[in-house]
Amino acid sequence: MLYDVIIIGGGPAATAAAVYTARKRLKTLLITESFGGQSIVSDDIQNWIGEPHISGFDLAKKFEAHVRAFSDMVEIKMPEKVTEIKSTKCQIGESRICDFEVKTDKNSYEGKSIILASGARRRKLGIPGEEKFEGKGVAYCSTCDAPLFSGKKVAVIGGGNAGLEAVIDLFPYAEEVHIMEYGESLKGDPVTQEEVKKNPKLKGIIFNAKTLEIQGDKFMTGVKYEDTKTGEEKILSADGVFVEIGSIPNSEMVKNFLELDKYGQVIIDSKHATTSHPGVFAAGDITDDPYKQNNISAGDAVKAALAAYNYLLNRAKVTPAAG
């Protein structure tokens, strides 16, 4: 079967795209390993519009239910992992119109257009205790979770812009904040460094800190680290830790197909969510858009869905079903 559009992902971007392609009466295939995206680990999301408080698990269920409400137009393949995307049956000419083949770990599918919404995954430390205490002190999104650490002692791992911005996000809530940086200096913008350093809630910056373990019982209680200059192992007691060492876009399946930036993010024209290949659109954390937020991902995915719809009409190979 040749689908009008194949959407890859299960987070807010993929969900929004599927709802809009369905409403445009496009025969849609959504391929995902699971619904929810990165926020599924959050116990209390407070910035999803219309939901003052919702857990990542409950939000994921709502995503899936919303897509399944359009089961007449949207087919879901889950759990499946996309491994490769390539163009096929390309027409010679200025328009460069192609069909696309999407390979997964279970099957292969064909579509007239693609919406990439597979998001990103937080770059993790890969140390003992990190996974055990995720959601129990270990966090990766300060914008999402900073309010949960009101009155707490918190560490931020990472001295780049992301780490410093996390520190700023924490200042209104945490009792005290500590920065742990592997290198010998902070890497963030000088202006941001100044803003961070002048706040009395910043109690310390630990340089040459190689994190070894997240410690705790039911909840985390501290971070074990090595001073790389002296070799001495130490423990910083903390109620929480934000790991801010970057993220990894889930773009491996298009690394030889689309233009990516040096971080592996899909380069888009943000006005129409277009990529370097006609007929392929992208939205959310997989893209080079600088702001990584659920609400932004959903809005950008609506643009991608509408752009895909217009592309298909101009391609003159699809006639939307009546409805």
Description:
The structure is a single chain. This protein is an alpha/beta fold and 323 residues long. The chain folds into two domains: 2-121 and 247-315, FAD/NAD(P)-binding domain, CATH 3.50.50; 124-243, FAD/NAD(P)-binding domain, CATH 3.50.50.60. 21% of the residues lie in helices and 26% in strands. The chain is built from six helices and 19 strands. It has helices at 12-23, 56-68, 142-145, 161-170, 190-197, 294-315, and strands spanning 2-3, 5-8, 28-31, 74-77, 82-88, 99-104, 108-111, 114-116, 120-122, 138-139, 153-157, 176-180, 202-206, 209-216, 220-227, 233-237, 240-243, 247-249, 280-282. β3 (28-31), α2 (56-68) and β4 form a beta-alpha-beta unit. α1 runs parallel beside α2, α1 runs parallel beside α6 (294-315) and α4 packs parallel to α5. The longest helix has 22 residues, at 294-315. It is elongated and about 65 Å long. It comes from Candidatus Giovannonibacteria bacterium RIFCSPLOWO2_01_FULL_46_13. Keywords: Disulfide bond, FAD, Flavoprotein, Oxidoreductase, Redox-active center. GO terms for molecular function: oxidoreductase activity, acting on a sulfur group of donors, NAD(P) as acceptor.
